[in-house]
Amino acid sequence: MPHVEIKCFTGRTEEQKKECAERVAEIIAETLGCKTTSVSVAIKDIPEENWKEQVWDKSIVPDVQYLYKRPGYTCE
Predict the structure, then answer these.
(1) Which of 68, 64, 18 is nearest to 43 (CA)?
(2) DSSP assignment, residue 3?
(3) pLDDT in tens, 41-74
(4) 29 in Cβ contact with 39 (< 8 Å)
(5) Does residue 59 sit in helix, strand or coil?
(6) Is 62 a catalytic residue?
(7) One of 2, 47, 62, 71 is an active-site residue; which one?
(8) What is the pTM of this model?
(9) Backbone angles phi, psi at 72, to 5 degrees
(10) Segment 49-58, tens digit of pLDDT
(11) Which of 37, 39, 56, 71 satisfies CB 3.0 to 4.6 Å to 52 for a cystine?
């Protein structure tokens, strides 16, 4: 615990993804009081044209009550 899944448009390098995952893990461990070895981070590339269908409709809208940071955009 905890596990974080990051979904973003394609185009990031493996180096960027690794650095992002490390930084996210460090902040989570510090904030939630756990070890970085307990944190897992997945990063999934989603093509921009598939964002609404694969992310907005399936992850954001149904789980809006769990979002502590809501997006500043809509996919209406």
Answers:
(1) 18
(2) E
(3) 999 999 999 999 999 999 999 999 999 999 999 9
(4) yes
(5) helix
(6) no
(7) 2
(8) 0.89
(9) -95, 25
(10) 999 999 999 9
(11) 56
